[in-house]
Amino acid sequence: MKDVAFYTESFGCQMNAYDTEVISSLLASRGAREVSSPEEADCIVVNTCSVRDHAERRAIGRLLDLSRHRRAMLAVCGCMAQRLGEELFDIVPSVRVIAGTGAYAGLPMAIERALSTGERFALLGYDGEAAYEILPRAGPESVSRYVAITRGCESYCSYCIVPYLRGPLRSRSASSIVEEAGALERAGTREITLLGQNVIAYRDGETDFPALARRILDETGIPRLRFLTSHPRDVTADLFDLMASQPRLCGHIHLPVQSGNDRVLAAMNRGYTRDRYLALLAEGRSRVPDLAVTSDVIVGFPGETPREFDDTIDLVRRAMFDSAFTFMYSARAGTAAAAVPDDVSADEKKRRLAILNEAVQEERGRILRSQLGATAEILLDGAVEKGETRWLKGRTPQFRNVLVRADAGAPGGFVRVVLSRLLNFTFEGEPVEAP
For 379-409, what is each residue's pLDDT tens digit? Predict the structure, then answer.
C-alpha cells in the first residue's frame, strides 16, 4: 500500500474509536500514510455505529457527503457495515469496500485491490482472534489511551443489536493486556481506559475483571486506570473493594440502568431489578464514598406506560448520577424487542426524553454544586481557548471536567486544585500547590 493516503472517521462508542486506531495502525503497517483531511486521501475509511437508527442515518448522510470527493475510494467498517452488508453498495454507490466488525485484518488487501481494479469487496466473516494481534500505533505521546480487553457480548438485552453484530464475548489474555498497558506507560500515557461491550464480564482462566485490574496496577506504574462499560448484573463487591484500596483505579463507574421499572427491565432482559440496582449503588458508595456514577437510560420502550416512565424519573432522582446518556427507544431489526409493537408514539417519546433530560441535568447540577470548595487532583490532558483566555483542561478521578489557568502545568501532569467555580457543568480550579 505504499503511497496510498488514507483518512479515517469514527462514529459511535469508545470501542469504535479504538477500532479506528487499530485500522489506522494496520494500514500504516502496510505502508499507507494517514492524512488529516478527506481532500488529501486516496481512501476514506468510515467506522460506523448501528446501535440506533439515528446513528445509521448520520453515518449514511456522512458517506453521501464524502462521496463528493470523487478521487477518494470509500471503505465502510463497523457495526452498520456488518448489519447492512452488501446493501450498502446500493445505498452509497461510491462505496468499494465493506468490512464487518470481525474482518479488519483483510482491509489492506481489499483496499489495495479496489484502488487498482475498481472492484467491490464485502468482508463480513469473522477472522477469529486476528484483531487482537493488531494494536494501535504508539504514535505521538498521548495522555489517555484506550485498551480493548474484550470483544463481543452475550448479554442479549432485548433491544440491543450488538451481540448479533460483534459476536460472542471473547477475552484477551491477561498477559497481553498487561504488556500493552506497560508499553503505553513507557510511551508516556498517564491514563488507560479498559474497554469492552461489558468489560466486567472479562475472564481469562481464573482471572476475572477485578483480578486483571489488580494485576495491571501491580505490574505497571500507570497513574490512572479506568474502565467502560459495566453491566449491573455482573458487578461484585470485589470491584468496589479494589477501588477503595487502590486510588489509581478511578472512583467512577459507568453503569447503564436503562429503566427504573421492574416490568420494563424484565422485558429488556437486563437481569436485575430496580431495587437490586439501587442496592448496588449503595454498596459501592459505602466502600467508595466519593464514587461517581454515570448511566444510560432509554425512554419509550415498547409497552412503557406513563406510570412506568415515572418510575424511571424516580430512580434517576434516587441514583444520584453525575450524568447520563439518554435515548428514545429505536427498534433494531433482528432483536427480540423488534418483534413487539413499538406502541409509544414518537411525540410521546420526545416528551418523555425532555422530562428525563431535565431530571438528569437537575441532579447533575446538584451533585456538582455540592463539590464546590472541595480539593481534587486533576490530570491535565489538553488546552482550550475560551474567548481571549487560554486554559488547560483536565479531569478528576471521578471524570469531572476542570479548567485551570494556562500556567498551572502541562498536559500529562497532575495538579491539585480547589474547585472554586462551576461554569455550566465544568469546574474552574485554583491550584493549591506550585506547578
Answer: 999 998 887 888 999 999 999 999 999 999 9
Q: What is each CA distance from 327 to 15, 175, 183, 295, 356, in whole angstroms? A: 19, 37, 37, 11, 10
If phi over 0 gives left and psi between -120 and 50 gives alpha, with beta otherwise, what is residue 330? beta
What pTM was estimated for this model as a whole? 0.91
Helix (H, G, I), strand (E, B) or coil at 121: strand
Residue identified by cell 446500493 is 90
Beta-bridge partner residues of 391: 384, 405
| Contact between 371 and 399 (Cβ < 8 Å) | no
The average pLDDT across 109-135 equals: 79
CATH code for residues 375-431: 2.40.50
Return the closest-CA partner of residue 293 out of 322, 257, 259: 322
Answer whether 258's CB lies under 8 Å from 268's CB: yes
Select from 3.40.50.1970, 3.10.450.50, 3.40.50.12160, 3.40.190.10 the CATH code of 5-123.
3.40.50.12160
Q: Say how many C-beta atoms besides its own lie within 10 A of residue 334's C-beta.
A: 11
- In angstroms, the CA 383 to CA 408 distance is 11
State CA 259 to chain mean position distance: 20
- Quote the CA–CA distance of 209 and 348 in Å, as a whole number: 40
Q: In this structure, are residues 167 and 199 in contact, taking their beta carbons and an 8 Å threshold? A: no
| Cα–Cα distance, 339 to 354 (Å, whole number) | 27
